[in-house]
Q: What sequence folds into this?
């Protein structure tokens, strides 16, 4: 068995950048204005080295507003703007509501679904969880079966989780566009951030107003959802 | 690698070393060597800590050469934990150095007349076995510091900590890494207790002036090695995932699958998984000036290890692996990465199997000795083990004994050995291997390449549930063969996916040995090893009824998928029916 795994991630990321630049405004509908108030908008500008710090938050899940009732391919390719190559080659492990997805053309995304995206994983367990892999039968009890397409595609929300290499590659773009995070998660993240975090954080705004960086870890967001954008310094 | 070193610790007048040619064991390495010697020479009904058991340490077939990823050594004996045959393997420098010294195996035999503790020094001039009671009850870290002060920092050490000296069934044999730290362990089955029973604290290996082992066909070898390394580097797991996040890259994914055993196998999801994931771990390591990626031995190109510093930026431990993070983390409800790193450091120092200890602490947490999530309590429990208190002695005997002592029903063991970090209810195929491997529950026993690459047992239809039996069989065969080569098992992903990398591996072995190796040859080797091991276990009293998972896996649905283990007993009995 030979899988198409020989690709150049750097070239692919460039391609993804292009995809996002050209199409994100049309297809990637998540933004602060679309959400109901009252919710906070936090904008951070950080040094590039600090960007990976946020990947842990992305792995714990963030909310995106998308059209639901469609297939996963429709979501990944047409709505989120990922290239077919990237989906085939990098997204080797996909979970929809905790079940391993083998076929993205038959898995249907529902309102409230949780979608987790990961690269290929090591270990026998990692191999069994791979999309359409030779060991799929070893986890048949948690395989995502074929689901019925909805009669109509509608606006909805899903929780997206980005793991490992996928977070590293797609994370900066999601962060730049903005992600909805649970206040409790964000608060815990800021409170536990290492000292180097404040050093690398160049500017912060809350609801459009400048915010003292030293006060970030003192804000209380326990019950809110926060729209967070993180951009790197130029 | 043309001789075997035997050290009889029970000889009249003190330990005696002797060398002998390979004889019947010619051509064997790693697990093939340890299991062949144990199966042939150790009486299956002997006491594991008695004079008739043997501890066999064998470098892989390609160790000591320039072959990439060939630094694993196997340690074999009759296991004090399972009562059956055991092979545990480890990275580190020991395998390479032992092979360059020319030994295909070092065998510790007999039993000392008293409780004198010995060190064994092996170099180009021969073998010295000297009593050294000043080493008694030293942890592995202090021990290696002392050895380095005496023998320099170019040696490789194979040692035991306090747990091995106390002959605990969860005791490991430690191998030093490239930085002279005792961080790599032949962890499973209590092999450290057998070394302790032989009265050997440390084997010091010095390969100064010894040449690298040469291939029979240097040109073909060079080309194959180049292709092999290129294959490893281009694969997303061995070239990117493992170097970037270590094996702990699995935590988030297994948790998402609902297969991360949590709170002593009560659920399959851990709320704190994100805080102890490989992604979070890498961030912590980077922010403290640690290393996210490094090899554990010379010649490693995957580099899945790393340096985990404490909050002050000082070395605490190597990058804790997925199994360790699970065992001391999710399984015990602990989401504090620093606490888990401390537990890993303590395990390495005392010489304890992180899987067995994490599972054991999970069992006593269920018994009420501590609360799930109480990291400080977990650290204190582990200290009891290192100090050898009565409670510590119970815990150091492993999860099965501890479960009996504290009256716990949910004890996750097979053949007395704790299950690793994948719940077999949602991922049932792994449960088949846990149940049937001769080693006791072992995640690495069925790890390697697929039937479709090796052509073992015909083509398996992956969509049929009954394919799990065939898959487990073929995986166990392939894994046993790889364990004989000295290759790190992580090469499996690249050779699984890339036919040219698999061929490069075969070419490497062929060019090195001068004998053409085919996929059929790999299969035959794997079957021979498993046959030896199962034969030993049968003579030790094991029956098919031992090839079963604990009852609770069939009776207790595991959230969130509420899966139970449903593979039938009669199907499990077919795994070795080849």
A:
């Amino acid at each position: 068995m030979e899988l198409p795994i020989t690709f150049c991630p750097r070239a692919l990321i460039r391609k993804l950048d292009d995809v996002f630049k050209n199409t994100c405004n049309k297809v990637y509908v998540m933004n602060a204005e679309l959400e109901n108030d009252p919710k906070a908008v936090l904008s951070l500008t950080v040094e590039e080295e600090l960007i990976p710090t946020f990947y842990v938050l992305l792995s714990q899940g963030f909310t995106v507003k998308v059209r639901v009732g469609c297939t996963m391919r429709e979501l990944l390719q047409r709505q989120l703007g990922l290239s077919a190559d990237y989906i085939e080659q990098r997204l080797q492990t996909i979970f929809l509501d905790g079940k391993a997805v083998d076929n993205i053309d038959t898995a249907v995304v529902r309102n409230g679904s949780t979608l987790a995206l990961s690269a290929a994983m090591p270990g026998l367990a990692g191999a069994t969880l791979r999309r359409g892999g030779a060991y799929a039968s070893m986890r048949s009890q948690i395989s995502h079966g074929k689901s019925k397409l909805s009669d109509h595609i509608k606006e909805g929300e899903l929780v997206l989780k980005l793991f490992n290499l996928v977070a590293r590659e797609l994370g900066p773009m999601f962060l730049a566009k903005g992600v909805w995070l649970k206040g409790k998660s964000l608060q815990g993240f800021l409170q536990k951030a290492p000292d180097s975090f404040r050093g690398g954080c160049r500017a912060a705004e809350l609801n459009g107003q400048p915010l003292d960086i030293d006060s970030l870890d003192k804000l209380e967001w326990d019950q809110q959802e926060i729209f967070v954008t993180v951009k790197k310094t130029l | 690698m043309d001789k075997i070193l035997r050290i009889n610790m029970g000889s009249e007048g003190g330990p005696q070393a002797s060398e002998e040619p390979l004889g019947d064991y010619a051509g064997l390495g790693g697990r093939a060597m340890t299991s062949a010697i144990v199966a042939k020479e150790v009486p299956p009904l002997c006491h594991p800590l008695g004079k008739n058991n043997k501890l066999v340490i064998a470098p892989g077939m390609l160790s000591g050469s320039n072959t990439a990823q060939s630094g694993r050594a196997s340690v074999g004996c009759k296991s004090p934990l399972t009562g059956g045959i055991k092979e545990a393997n480890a990275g580190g420098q020991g395998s390479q150095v032992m092979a360059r010294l020319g030994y295909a195996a070092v065998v510790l035999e007999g039993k000392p007349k008293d409780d004198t503790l010995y060190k064994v020094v092996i170099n180009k001039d021969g073998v010295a076995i000297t009593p050294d009671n000043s080493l008694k009850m030293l942890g592995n870290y202090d021990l290696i510091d002392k050895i380095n002060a005496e023998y320099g920092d170019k040696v490789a050490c194979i040692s035991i900590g306090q747990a091995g000296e106390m002959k605990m069934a969860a005791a490991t044999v430690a191998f030093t890494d490239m930085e002279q730290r005792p961080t790599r362990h032949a962890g499973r089955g209590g092999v450290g207790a057998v070394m302790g029973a032989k009265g050997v604290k440390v084997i010091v290996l010095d390969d100064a002036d010894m040449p690298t082992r040469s291939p029979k066909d240097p040109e073909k070898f060079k080309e194959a090695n180049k292709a092999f390394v290129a294959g490893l580097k281009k694969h997303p797991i061995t070239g990117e995932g493992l170097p970037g996040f270590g094996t702990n890259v699995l935590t988030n994914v297994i948790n998402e699958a609902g297969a991360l055993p949590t709170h002593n196998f009560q659920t399959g999801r851990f709320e704190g998984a994100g805080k102890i994931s490989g992604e979070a771990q890498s961030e912590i390591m980077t922010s403290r000036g640690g290393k996210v990626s490094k090899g554990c031995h010379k010649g490693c190109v995957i580099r899945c290890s790393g340096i985990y510093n404490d909050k002050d930026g000082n070395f605490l431990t190597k990058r804790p692996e997925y199994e360790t993070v699970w065992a001391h983390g999710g399984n015990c409800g602990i989401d504090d990465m620093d606490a888990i790193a401390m537990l890993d450091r303590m395990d390495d120092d005392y010489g304890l199997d992180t899987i067995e200890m994490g599972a054991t602490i999970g069992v006593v947490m269920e018994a009420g000795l501590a609360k799930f999530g109480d990291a400080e309590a977990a650290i204190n429990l582990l200290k009891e083990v290192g100090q050898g208190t009565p409670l510590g002695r119970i815990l150091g005997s492993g999860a099965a004994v501890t479960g009996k002592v504290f009256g716990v029903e949910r004890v996750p063991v097979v053949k007395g050995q704790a299950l690793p970090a994948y719940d077999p209810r949602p991922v049932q195929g792994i449960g088949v291997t846990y149940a049937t491997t001769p080693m006791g529950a072992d995640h690495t026993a069925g790890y390697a390449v697929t039937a479709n690459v090796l052509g073992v047992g015909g083509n398996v239809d992956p969509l049929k549930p009954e394919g799990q039996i065939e898959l487990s069989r073929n995986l166990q065969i392939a894994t046993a063969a790889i364990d004989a080569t000295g290759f790190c098992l992580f090469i499996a992903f690249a050779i699984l996916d890339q036919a040219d990398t698999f061929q490069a591996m075969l070419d490497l072995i062929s060019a090195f040995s001068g004998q053409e190796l085919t996929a059929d040859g790999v299969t035959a080797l794997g079957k021979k090893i498993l046959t030896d091991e199962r034969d030993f276990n049968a003579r030790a009293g094991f029956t098919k009824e031992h090839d079963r998972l604990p009852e609770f896996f069939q009776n207790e649905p595991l959230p969130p998928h509420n899966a139970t283990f449903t593979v039938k007993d009669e199907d499990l009995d077919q795994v070795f029916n080849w």
Notes: Residues 9-27 of chain A form the longest helix (19 residues). Helices of chain A lie at 9-27, 55-60, 72-79, 84-89, 123-129, 164-177, 183-192, 195-200.
